[in-house]
């Protein structure tokens, strides 16, 4: 019988297993993940879970799902090596042969070389979130290093729970890698209105048990220090196996690696952007699930249409839901419409649409991008109020 | 306990017990109801938790959330007046006996 082995039982690994069955694959499926417990979703870890959410609500599916769908789930199990010559993976004392291998190893928190790093916690796993949740009691002082999505979502929750919060960001604006300047500015104002201290252009120099010191010499006292400085993809396994790696595990438009029976997906995969062709790596539920579905279709049915899904992303910060449709390049310009929608442009092409609490505009953008017809300003029904570059 | 019946497009029905405070989407996942995928985990970003709620229950399941209609417009299954995103319906005592019909996959 044909056997698919999936390394990593996170959002994408789980989806690949579920989609294989949905597409009618009737061979064996092994889903191997090193974390304990059940496959779970990460987005609530910096949102609802910290505000009294339960572990059960994080779970992607109950035990019975894996039984019913004949998915051999091996949790708490670390894959040590991929032996491509013999088409098998190595786990503790066992060699498992595969016909197809899917690498879905995700990413881990970036831990830059900073003195006193051991005093800062990270937020990636349920284990991390549970520890943080336990220390968020009785009005503590929270220091967040890094003003990206996770740092800011966490900051908003901590404020809502009544803790005092400082966010320090080395870049001159928040979420600089992912959103336009006007959006960064609006979120900075929002967090400041909530009573959070937002410090920009000031990276961390040193961390200690009582807080941290910034490059400017400024001192932040904190009882809980969160380091949220981004992630690095888990590519070591692929690299050791001799697969091509460049910022992520390199795959082609079919999401196949440099080995034709090995695919890679989600946070660990560098794939060609269907619009521009440049190699990109996305860290989102959308990428993990859309990659997984496409790979499952290919393995189960031999589908041969290249990956074309429109990227989308969301981030909940207090009562604001930021939504992004599409993908802007770092040098794309921004134009803010009167209703607050921000259009990103590469030349005259709309590359991304950023909105806050505006599902209509977000969906218009997603549908338009999926149709392949270029978006126009008029679809957002508003004349340009201001042009910001 | 609140019981909810899920009916597949082929008529197969499954009645399950729901926990108060869960969403109808979570109830479906906990009970392995086919046809509900909930890829975004209830963030109203994916419409893969789309179902039909009969008229007579519409009042008890409450109003649609802000933006729910816009998201439904993107559903890959057929949308009707009875369409709802099940992640936006909270299980309450008033929903005991609720009937939820699942959409057929568009070819
Ligand atoms: C706190 C937080 C909030 C987020 N919020 C959002 C959000 O609002 N919206 C959004 O779109 N995205 C969000 N994300 C991102 C999203 O969760 C990820 O993009 C998604 O989980 C990626 O899925 P994945 O399968 O690629 O990786 P993961 O879900 O990380 O799964 C990879 C798994 O593989 C395991 N693994 C790695 N190496 C091995 C090995 N050798 N052997 C066995 N197992 C291995 C890892 O331990 C992990 O369990 C958030 C992430 C975090 C951490
Ligand atoms: S679960 Fe994604 S919209 Fe309901």
Q: Can you describe this structure?
A:
The complex is a heterodimer of chains A (389) and B (107). Chain A is an alpha/beta fold. Chain A has helices at 11-22, 63-68, 126-135, 149-160, 181-193, 236-240, 285-301, 359-371, and strands spanning 3-7, 28-32, 71-74, 79-83, 88-91, 94-97, 100-103, 107-109, 141-145, 164-168, 197-199, 204-208, 211-214, 219-221, 224-227, 231-233, 249-250, 262-264, 269-272, 279-280, 312-317, 320-326, 333-337, 342-346, 349-356, 384-388. Chain A folds into three domains: 3-108 and 231-301, FAD/NAD(P)-binding domain; 111-227, FAD/NAD(P)-binding domain (3-Layer(bba) Sandwich); 319-386, 2-Layer Sandwich (Enolase-like, domain 1), CATH 3.30.390.30. A six-stranded antiparallel β-sheet of chain A has the order 21-22-25-24-23-26, sandwiched between helices. In chain A, helix 1 packs parallel to helix 7. Chain A is globular. The N and C termini of chain A lie far apart (57 Å). In chain A, 46% of the residues are buried. Chain B is an alpha+beta fold and 107 residues long. Chain B has one domain (2-101): Beta-grasp domain (Ubiquitin-like (UB roll), Roll). Chain B is 18% helix and 21% strand. Chain B has three helices and five strands; from the N terminus they run E-E-H-E-H-H-E-E. Chain B has helices at residues 24-30, 55-61, 68-72; strands at residues 2-7, 13-18, 50-53, 83-85, 98-101. In chain B, strands 2-1-5-3-4 form a five-stranded mixed β-sheet. The interface between A and B is medium-sized, with 28 and 19 residues. FE2/S2 (inorganic) cluster (FES) is lined by residues 25, 38-40, 42, 44-49, 71, 85, 87 of chain B.
